[in-house]
């Protein structure tokens, strides 16, 4: 089976990129990372691409007069490489409705919250301030509204006593490193269909029936 030709767009550290690279290293994985693009030359994630022998490009947004011109350069580079799917992985640029429409249902994003709760920045601090018992991450198809769109995978992690922003972010990040490869696998296998701004996933098993936090000490 042909593997889905995927580009990963980053702006920084690239730990999600690294998780995707690891998943794609398995030759049975239904997607391959053909290109990594960063809008910042100093993005640490570019090293992960280099080490894995993956082509990369730096397209600095500051070199362009406006968002449209920047995005036209992105699309040109992506299309020249024959990219079929874009994975946003810590790509910290807002995208215009035109770019999002061009890549509609061919662009996915990971966000470190259980969307639609806590979109945008300072996710973990806001979750802690609200006292939620579960945090997590979401992989979704991208729509023009930031951190919004048909949900593919969510992973939930508990918020624990004594958590600060950093502890919670680290717990969520390890969940991200499992959720993003799973989402890419499902999309690569052609099992994810967008129906009325929700997704239907074929052949999906049952998730655990319930998670309680705090746990119910009276029940095993
Ligand atoms: C990740 O936590 C990702 O979910 C978040 O940026 C981080 C990038 O880390 N993305 C967003 O907040 C998008 N709204 P990474 O560079 O190590 O993958």
Could you explain the architecture of this structure?
- By secondary structure, the protein is α/β, with parallel strands linked by helices.
- Helices cover 31% and strands 23% of the residues.
- It has six helices and nine strands, in the order E-H-E-H-E-H-E-H-E-H-E-E-H-E-E.
- The strands form two sheets. The chain has a seven-stranded mixed beta sheet, sandwiched between helices. It has a two-stranded antiparallel ribbon with strand order 8-9.
- The radius of gyration is 18 Å and the shape is globular.
- Glycinamide ribonucleotide (GAR) binds next to helix 1, strand 5 and helix 6.
Secondary-structure topology with pairs:
Layout (H helix, E strand, L loop, with lengths): L3 E7 L4 H10 L6 E8 L6 H7 L4 E3 L8 H14 L4 E4 L8 H6 L4 E5 L11 H8 L3 E8 L9 E8 L6 H24 L3 E4 L2 E4 L19
Helix pairs in contact: 1-6
This protein binds glycinamide ribonucleotide.
The site of glycinamide ribonucleotide (GAR) has 15 residues, from helix 1, strand 5 and helix 6.
Concise structural overview:
The chain is α/β, with parallel strands linked by helices and 220 residues long. The chain is 31% helix and 23% strand.
Number of contiguous helices: 6
Distance between the termini: 45 Å
**What is the percent of helical residues?**
25-40%
Instruction: Walk across the major sheet and give the strand order.
Output: 3-2-1-4-5-6-7
The low-confidence parts are: none
Outline, from the CA principal axes?
globular
Listed once per kind, the bound small molecules are: glycinamide ribonucleotide
The beta-strand count equals: 9
Main beta-sheet strand count, sense and barrel state: 7 strands, mixed
The H/E string reads: EHEHEHEHEHEEHEE
Content-based structural category: alpha/beta
Could you tell me the radius of gyration in angstroms? 18 Å
How big a fraction of the residues is strand? 15-25%
Q: What is the typical, i.e. mean, pLDDT?
A: 97
